[in-house]
Every structure is written in C-alpha cells, then in structure tokens.
Amino acid sequence: MQVTMTPIGYIHTDCAEIPRHWTISRVEGELVIEPAYQQGLRDIQPGDRLMVLFWFHRSRPFTSDLLLRKPPHLDQRKGVFSTCSPRRPNPLGHSIVEVLARTDNRLWVRGLDMVDGTPILDLKPVFLPDPV
Q1: pLDDT tens-digit profile of 23-49?
Q2: Nearby residues of 38 by Cβ (< 8 Å), 6 or more positions away
Q3: 101 part of a folded domain
Q4: Which CATH number covers residue 37?
Q5: Is the pTM of this model over 0.90?
Q6: Would you say residue 115 lies in a domain?
C-alpha cells in the first residue's frame, strides 16, 4: 500500500530558535493554508486550540539504527515510538497551537515548534475537558 499526502499549507515564522516541543513554546507565527481550503477555516476562532499535523521536511532519512534513541532530557534510550524525535520511519509530527487571529487563509497562532516552511498536512480541533 502506498500513502500519498499533499500539504494543505505551510508554517511561517520569523523565529530563528524554535523550542523542541510545543508544550514549552510561546513562539508565534502563521499557518498559511492554501486558498482552495480557506472555507474549511470558517469556524476557527481566536482562543481555539488546533492540532497541527505536519511533515518533518528537514529530517534526515530514517535508518534501523534509530529505533532506539536517547532523548536529550532523559538518561536512557527509548524506542523511537516513545519519543518525539523527527527521525522516524514516517516523519510525521503533531503540535497543539493556540489560535490568536484568523484572516482569510491565514491563522496566527502561538505555540509553534516547527521551522519556517514546514508543510502542514492537516488541522484538527482540540477539545479540552472542563476542569472538575
């Protein structure tokens, strides 16, 4: 089976130093969505959270020696599927961002951990449970 994906847009940020993970990021930038998909952004509002599915386009190819990795914040090696490493069999990533504004086919967001030019594959809403 072959799976083919086409980006729906790209990340734009002027930030040169991108945090390693969205949970620690305050970086702002834009999700620039292809105009053909603009209508799909209609119901997105400031304050919404979105899961951004993206392609690690700068990641070097995966090899079997990368099945075990030592994340920089841990003292032990872990299986690649237990890490957020960009070096994976399929270099898919996901991050959660906060929407600051929306204009036409652009979403201004906070929480980026992707570099400028990163291809966006999909957007999904994030619904957080109400605090108990």
Answers
A1: 878 989 999 999 999 999 999 999 999
A2: 104, 105
A3: yes
A4: 2.40.30.70
A5: no
A6: yes
